[in-house]
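User: Just a sanity check before I run the rest of the batch. Below are the structure tokens for the first item. I only need the designed sequence back.
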């Protein structure tokens, strides 16, 4: 049995491996989980001793096959719960991350199966994140590019938004920005603000927010601000 905290570490390493090249440095893990470096070092030693990660001194850590399987199962629980809370319990998409974080460690396989069945085995959660299948094959987490990488005149379709910041999600919701929405980049300021047209209105996004939105190139047949999660 793994503790909730151990599973959180494996999930964090899984996410960080997909954001950049492995191995993942302990300082990145500490920043992601908002804990101290000595705390990470202690936990990394425990996970390595149990065979869930491989550790290379001065370089970082990587998940083993066993560690990845655990992480993917937790991710599946998390994203299914976010979808269920949104679709069946009327939670706002800015509220579900913390609830899913609390519940993801404690649901049975039967409960997981029933949630997936009730949702019709969805492929993505409310934020556009891919939901791993029941076989726990890692999904493709790298779809699209970051909105911050685009320039003025680009038309893009929102595929994913980060679920980690409730205030940011509430802001995006008020701005009408969600998976499925087509945007046009109208301006990129030298100091980092990215302005996009959402329907007939323009919204200016800080570069940090634009980085958290993953997009694909919109086709000519897609109308601006049509669609949604």
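Assistant: Here's the designed sequence for the first item:
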């Amino acid at each position: 049995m793994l503790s909730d905290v151990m599973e959180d570490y494996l999930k964090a390493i899984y996410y960080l491996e997909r954001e950049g090249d492995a191995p993942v440095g302990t300082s990145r893990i500490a920043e992601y989980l908002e804990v101290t470096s000595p705390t990470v070092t202690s936990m990394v030693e425990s996970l390595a001793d149990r065979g869930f990660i491989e550790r290379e001194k001065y370089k970082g850590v990587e998940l083993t096959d066993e560690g990845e399987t655990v992480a993917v199962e937790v991710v599946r629980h998390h994203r299914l719960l976010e979808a269920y809370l949104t679709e069946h319990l009327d939670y706002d998409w800015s509220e579900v991350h913390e609830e899913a974080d609390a519940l993801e460690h404690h649901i049975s396989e039967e409960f997981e199966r029933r949630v997936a069945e009730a949702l019709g085995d969805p492929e993505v959660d409310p934020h556009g994140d891919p939901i791993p299948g029941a076989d726990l094959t890692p999904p493709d987490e790298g779809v699209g590019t970051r909105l911050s990488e685009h320039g003025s005149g680009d038309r893009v379709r929102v595929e994913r938004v980060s679920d980690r910041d409730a205030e940011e999600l509430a802001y995006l919701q008020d701005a009408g920005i969600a998976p499925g929405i087509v945007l046009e980049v109208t301006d990129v300021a030298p100091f980092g603000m990215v302005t996009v047209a959402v329907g007939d209105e323009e919204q200016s996004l800080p570069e940090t927010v634009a980085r958290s939105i993953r997009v694909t190139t919109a086709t000519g047949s897609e109308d601006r601000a049509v669609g949604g999660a």
